[in-house]
Amino acid sequence: MNSVTVRTLLVRGMLAGLGAGVLAFVFAYLVGEGPVDAAIAFEESNSHEHGGEELVSRTVQSTAGLATGVLVFGVAIGGIAALAFCFALGRVGRIGARATASFTALAGFLLLYLIPTLKYPANPPAVGNPDTIGERTILFVGMIVLSVLLGIAAVLLGRRLAPGWGNWNASITAGVAFVAVMAVTMAVLPSGDNTPKGFPANDLWEFRIASIGTQAVLWAAFGLLFGYLAERVLEPRVTRGKVSALAA
Amino acid sequence: MAQSTAAPTPTTQTLTPLPLRTIAPWAVFFGVLMLVLLYFVGAEQGATALVSGEGVHEWVHDARHLLGFPCH
User: Name one Pfam family in it (chain B) (predicted).
Assistant: First the structure.
């Protein structure tokens, strides 16, 4: 166990993120592009702002552009999650490499995406005033930072209570504390409502479901793929045993 | 399946935590690098801009929307 292990896990995390990004791109292309096009159609029929010549055509945006963004995002979160995995390994209870990878991916999906999204959900084109992009970006990033910090605090609280209260009670208490603090914070922070009058509610719903689905595919695929790759680094005996069992 | 007769979860006991000293340099360098990638996918030429123009924004436009970043 040395820095070579960390390097190997980091590389494999980025590769797993790339693979997960491919699946997320396919999902986003098939499920997400319809609602995006619907939103752009609404935008064009309702505003005179976004006319002008196109810098990047819609065809390129929905294929190569979408793929670039999702794949780079996949590699980046793969690297970050792999580093978090290196830290979590052997420190989050007696679970193996694959379970730790799944745990890391689930935590990443919840803390980096799903929980911040409950307050500041993904918006399709036409939803959101360009004049407030700075403020909305700060609130969105702030929400992510806050949910990560609260997540860490909840884990620390759970670990501190566990010896006296038992794992079950300590985990439930830490979880309830996380939800309570998060709920109050969300109630206090300014609203994320940017929807223009007349925007079809169903398009908004379908776009947001597509966004949640894209991120869910990405993190789920990453957790399973990285768990497989990490296990082969960390528990080679298990893998060899499986291989010989298959060969027999 | 031959392992099921041995002590419960024999493999997990071999997982010793990686020392923080060995994680830290990788975490600092690659952590920052990954955040830079996220910045370019998620926020460049939106709230702030390092590169002038709209090229980066327009290229990753659909990904930015569908991944949940505020786009414009």
Answer: CbtB
- In this prediction, residues A44-65 reach a mean pLDDT of 79
Q: Report if residue B17 sits inside a domain.
A: no
* Residue A158 in this model has a pLDDT that exceeds 80: yes
Q: Quote the pLDDT of residue A106.
A: 97
In chain B, the residue whose alpha carbon lies closest to the alpha carbon of A26 is: B63
- Please name the residue of chain A whose CA is at the shortest distance from the CA of residue B15: A90
Q: Do A122 and B30 touch (CB under 8 A)?
A: no
Helix axes A66-88, A97-108, angle to 10 degrees: 130
Integer Cα distance of A173 and A185 in angstroms: 18
- For residue A51, the model assigns a pLDDT of 53
- The reply to whether A23 and A68 lie within a common domain is yes
Looking at residue B14, its pLDDT comes to: 60
Tell me if chain B has a CB within 8 Å of the CB of A83. yes
Q: What is the pTM of this model?
A: 0.89
- Residue B59: domain span: 28-72
